[in-house]
TrEMBL record:
This is Beta-D-xylosidase 7. Keywords: Glycosidase, Hydrolase, Signal. Residues 536-591 are annotated as: Disordered. It comes from the Eukaryota. Residues 536-555 have a biased composition (Basic and acidic residues). InterPro entries: BXL, GH, Glyco_hydro_3_C, Glyco_hydro_3_C_sf, Glyco_hydro_3_N, Glyco_hydro_3_N_sf. GO terms for biological process: arabinan catabolic process; xylan catabolic process. One of its GO terms (molecular function) is alpha-L-arabinofuranosidase activity. One of its GO terms (cellular component) is plant-type cell wall. Pfam families: Glyco_hydro_3, Glyco_hydro_3_C.
Length: 591
């Protein structure tokens, strides 16, 4: 809701022209090379669906944990993008503008559609944008009208991403003329596009009878209904329901703390050999802070971002804990085609602790850019290895990336004692990383995606199949049957947890989640959060045993049910899982 409040505040003071938010991105993170994977929440439909609903409710001003109707006046209008099965930018000459994604009805129903259904049904989103890539979505009446509006109950508008309608004509030759293309999209259920194409070419099809007044009125009704819900016609916005929101509500201490909390909770401890972490504040006389991502706040922000409030770089965060912290970039950029390995090794050899900040940037992964390799770019690996060999004790490697990378070399190297993955943690990322490094925060993050080995790049990005078959390894933890660098859900803690099964029984109810009661306890002197994957939602008959959770069973989706507990040192938590009803998408023809 903090984002929604700041957006409304900017609108009220005249610094924003509209209140439609092109967020959240709830596409499934299907392929580790996807440049926009960093924008999404997970490879798992259940995780993405819950994220989608919570995001939409918050940004539109609804209570975050209820299915109640949106407020009478929306804070903003959320647009869940990009519906649906969109996850390729530009891979080996295959462009999103010309790529035709072939998706099975089963994969569409149980992988790609559920987050969008959750946006509409659970979150009550007012907008559903189609991707910038394919005519299959932008002019698909089965998807836009039968599914979104009639089946799911979308009570808002359907928008095409910028230039999507124009691309249908110029790159895909969907219809002979521009007017025919516009007519086809509006009749299928599209209401507006981000660009000017519909405005330019809608008049001619009306005059020629290819579009009716009813077609136009339907689109206008959907659009203006949402605008009315936003209060666009209620006069001075400062006199409205949200009129109290202004400059004072932007970058507030509360919102800064939320940014810090989000960054802290998202950090994943991948490796911690011999208890290298946490470091002890006051016990580190000198630290070498090495890496192109160590002192660049843009490296924290990812693909799309607004002006950050008082951002802190990792170097600045560490300097708050270590007086003698020396910085060396090591690489000229994330590409690392020019490096200072000898200087980095020399600095490492003269320092008590060495912390490397490596990873990617928007030059390797972003909208319009897919990766072709899962390895760290350029000379990063050789620099990391040289620094580790020169250091007095095992070094700490912090990775800032939005996608998985194959770091097998670091995983197996005892001289690289600890590895953290932060994603792109935002404005408070530098401070958050420092707090985790020095034990002020016990890491509790879990990987939302599978980390594949470099050999996975032999699989074409264009193969949209989810399920493994005939030598094809499948995708995501639900179907993939190959080797991994790190599994979905991996994440360590400074605490050690013990698990003990308390009870177990068959499920007497159909289509509910009833698994086992369990207890989780800390066994060390650290207070921490622990995420338990304690259950599944499954379809089974009365009295049947639960299927093995965490993976697909016979091709039926079994999403995990996760519980997050805060466990003070030495304490335990017990629970009996409750049913978790996660909606599924309806089957549709192959597109």
């Amino acid at each position: 809701m903090a984002t929604g409040k700041e957006a409304r505040a900017l609108y009220n003071i005249g610094q924003a022209e509209g209140l439609s938010m092109w967020s959240p991105n709830v596409n499934i993170f299907r392929d580790p090379r996807w440049g926009r994977g960093q924008e999404t929440s997970s490879e798992d439909p259940a995780v993405a669906s819950r994220y989608a609903a919570a995001f939409v409710r918050g940004i539109q001003g609804s209570a975050s944990n209820t299915r109640s109707a949106p407020p009478a006046v929306l804070l903003t209008s959320a647009c869940c993008k990009h519906a649906t099965a969109y996850d390729l930018e530009d891979w080996k000459g295959v462009s999103r503008y010309s790529f035709k994604a072939t998706v099975t009805a089963q994969d569409l129903a149980d992988t790609f559609n559920p987050p969008f259904r959750s946006c509409v049904v659970e979150g009550r989103a007012n907008c559903a944008p189609t991707p910038p890539s394919t005519a299959c979505q932008t002019a698909n009446a089965d998807l836009l009208t039968k599914t979104f509006r009639n089946s799911w109950g979308l009570d808002g508008y359907v928008a095409a991403d910028c230039d999507a309608v124009a691309i249908m004509r110029s790159s895909q030759f969907y219809r002979p003329t521009a007017e025919d293309t516009v007519a086809a999209t509006l009749k299928a259920g599209l209401d507006i596009d981000c660009g000017p194409y519909i405005q330019q070419y809608a008049t001619a099809p009306i005059q020629k009878g290819k579009l009716t007044q009813q077609d136009v009125d339907k689109a206008l009704n959907n659009l203006f209904t949402t605008r009315m819900r936003l209060g666009h016609f209620d006069g001075d916005p400062k006199a409205g329901v949200y009129g109290n929101l202004g400059a004072a509500q932007i970058c507030t201490p509360e919102h800064k703390n939320l940014a810090l909390e989000a960054a802290l909770d998202g950090i994943v401890l991948l490796k911690n050999g011999a208890g290298v972490l946490p470091l002890k504040r006051g016990a580190v006389a000198s630290a070498a802070v090495i890496g192109h991502n160590a002192n660049d706040f843009l490296a924290l922000l990812g693909n799309y971002w607004g002006p950050p409030c008082a951002p802190t770089t990792p170097l600045q965060g560490i300097q708050g804990f270590v007086k003698n912290a020396k910085f060396l970039a090591g690489c000229n950029s994330a590409a690392c085609n020019a490096d200072a390995t000898p200087q980095a090794a020399a600095l490492a050899s003269s320092s008590d602790e060495v912390i490397l900040f490596m990873g990617l940037s928007q030059q390797q992964e972003s909208e319009g850019k897919d990766r072709t390799s899962l390895l760290l770019p350029g000379n990063q690996q050789s620099l990391i290895t040289a620094v580790a060999n020169a250091a007095k004790r095992p070094v700490i490697l912090v990775l800032l990336t939005g996608v998985p990378v194959d770091i097998t070399f670091a995983q197996s190297n005892p001289k690289i004692g600890a590895i953290l993955w932060t994603g792109y943690p935002g404005q408070a990322g530098g401070l958050a990383i420092a707090k985790v490094l020095f034990g002020e925060k016990n890491p509790s993050g879990k990987l939302p995606v599978t980390w594949y080995p470099k050999e996975f790049t032999k699989i074409p990005m264009t193969d949209m199949r989810m399920r493994a078959a005939g030598g094809y390894p499948g995708r995501t933890y639900r179907f993939y049957n190959g080797k991994t660098v790190y599994k979905f859900g991996h994440g360590l803690s400074y605490s050690k947890f013990s698990h003990r099964l308390v009870t177990g029984r068959k499920n007497p109810a159909h289509n509910t989640s009833l698994l086992t009661a369990g207890r989780t306890a800390t066994t060390e002197d650290n207070t921490g959060y622990h995420v338990d994957h304690i259950g599944d939602e499954v379809d089974r008959g009365q009295g049947e045993e639960p299927r093995a959770h965490g993976r697909e069973a016979h091709g039926a989706h079994v999403p995990p049910l996760a519980e997050r507990d805060r466990l003070p040192a030495g304490e335990a938590a017990g629970r009996v899982p409750q049913p978790a009803h996660q909606g599924r998408g309806e089957c549709a023809p192959e597109v």
